[in-house]
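Exercise: predict the fold of this chain.
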Amino acid sequence: MYCKNCGFELKDTSANFCPNCGQSLATTNDGKVYDNSYNETNGYYEPIHNQNLYSNGDAPNGGLAFLSFLFPIVGLVLYIIWHAQYPLKAKSCLKGMIFGFVFGIFIFCCCLSSAGSSSYYYYSVIQSLF
């Protein structure tokens, strides 16, 4: 069962509130989670177990996160474009971009320190020859 507000998976089906966002969960004796909107034509609350949690096409996306990891500038552009309309996709791009940028800096520092130590070694070898 999932929270209708944030999509968090509810492990405890007897909970009255979502542990992630604090949204009230209206339940009945049948154990189903219902939307807080009252349906006047039928006279009962509508169940949400059949509704699509990501109905607007917005969902976390690992492929976009990986693309943003490989090309952080693409992740930044996608985040800027999607942050208002698709916040979950944009967040995936942002996470991938951050990890890719940090990883790139780490690799650059490792290569720089490796090149520096090897150049010092060759410099000392050349000095010993003269």
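Check your answer against the key: The longest helix spans residues 87-129.
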